[in-house]
Design goal:
The complex is a heterodimer. By secondary structure, chain A is an all-alpha fold. Chain A contains five helices and no strands. Chain A folds into two domains: 82 residues, Helicase, Ruva Protein, domain 3 (Orthogonal Bundle), CATH 1.10.8.640; 33 residues. In chain B, strands 5-4-3-6-7 form a five-stranded mixed β-sheet. The chains are: A mainly alpha, B alpha/beta.
């Protein structure tokens, strides 16, 4: 049985719409579960899982987080995190679980403690030291050369450096 | 004199840069320090490779020091390490427990049949679940466990002849001096 052109057009349009809808759905789910699908209880848990695994470092490819990494071990650790979540463990407990096994290295956000003081406050200390040097220099110049500057090139607005 | 200050600042930066290069050359940046050193080895129960119906637990191995060597047939660095274990494994004086990590048992058996078996016993962790408790993040890795079940030394990467002489053997010698448990 041959179909009329209007019928075909209608069918094509319906197919097109279905395809778009499908693509849209696919895109949104693939965004939500970046690498492997896990049976989350609800959306809130999934969001929590994504946030937590983003703060954890993949041990194999060390500049990637657990959420993004494709490494075998990263997948295992994601499953471990997922299982711990199902057991009702809090984010801090899960982090501690991994720190006990892999040291602070798994945390992208290193905790403040005696061995990381330099890491946390070193840049601030260097900044302060720089500020002190600048202040001292400016004061010394202000005191040393008040009138000695003879302006023979008045329009040269200090752009000779 | 004050003109030289920027120059000294520059020298300081050069020194810092040089120190950074030297430091990086001395240390493997990928090496994750194990928090398990001097802590009890995690409890485990794992099947034996040659007879999966039999299991081995941490408590079974308690009493005498042993070396756990994490290996897999897919692991290329394990292939480099293997001849070293074959020639020097017996000389370290403690049993070596092969820890077959995320491997198909048939592949592991074929690998050991082909290259030789330096292990006193081989246990299987196909899923890699127990390995997480040990903080394993690759193969090969080796753990020296003392008679009380405490991890005393960890080597990340292949055991080389130098590592055996300079690190592993002294660690084992230190265990021998301690009073028996």
């Amino acid at each position: 049985m041959r179909e009329k052109p209007t019928q075909r057009r209608l069918r094509n349009r319906a197919l097109g719409a279905l395809l778009q809808l499908g693509l849209l759905l696919f895109a949104s789910t693939s965004l939500a579960q970046a690498i492997d699908p896990l049976p989350f209880k609800d959306h809130a848990q999934e969001v929590r899982f994504q946030a937590l695994t983003r703060e954890l470092r993949c041990l194999v490819c060390q500049n990637e987080n657990l959420a993004d990494s494709n490494a075998d071990l990263a997948r295992d650790l994601r499953h471990e995190v997922f299982d711990l979540m199902q057991q009702g463990k809090s984010d801090d407990e899960i982090k501690q679980y991994l720190v006990d096994r892999y040291s602070d290295f798994v945390l992208y956000d290193p905790p403040v403690k005696s061995s990381t003081v330099l890491l946390w406050f070193g840049p601030l200390a260097i900044l302060l030291a720089g500020a002190v040097v600048v202040v001292v220099t400016i004061r010394r110049r202000g005191r040393a050369a008040p009138v000695a500057v003879t302006d023979d090139k008045p329009n040269d607005e200090g752009d000779d450096w | 004199m004050s003109r030289l200050v920027p120059f000294f600042g520059f020298l300081l930066l050069v020194a810092l840069f040089g120190f950074g290069i030297w430091w990086n050359a001395q240390h493997d940046q990928r090496e994750v320090p194990s928090p398990l050193i001097n802590k009890p080895a995690p409890a485990f129960v794992l099947p034996k490779l040659d007879d999966p119906s039999q299991t081995v637990s941490r408590d079974n191995l308690m009493g005498k020091p042993y070396l756990i060597n994490v290996f897999a047939s897919w692991c290329i660095a394990c292939g480099e390490e293997h001849p070293v274990l074959m020639t020097q494994g017996k000389s370290i004086g403690v049993p070596i427990v092969g820890y077959n990590y995320k491997d198909a048992p048939e592949d592991a058996k074929a690998w050991l049949a082909k290259h030789g078996n330096p292990y006193d016993m081989v246990i299987v962790d196909q899923e890699g679940r127990t390995a997480i408790d040990f903080g394993v993040y690759g193969a090969p890795e080796s753990f020296l466990v003392d008679g009380k079940g405490v991890i005393r030394y960890k080597r990340i990467g292949p055991l080389t002849p130098e590592a055996i002489e300079k690190e592993l053997k002294p660690a084992i010698a230190a265990l021998a001096k301690e009073p028996a448990p």
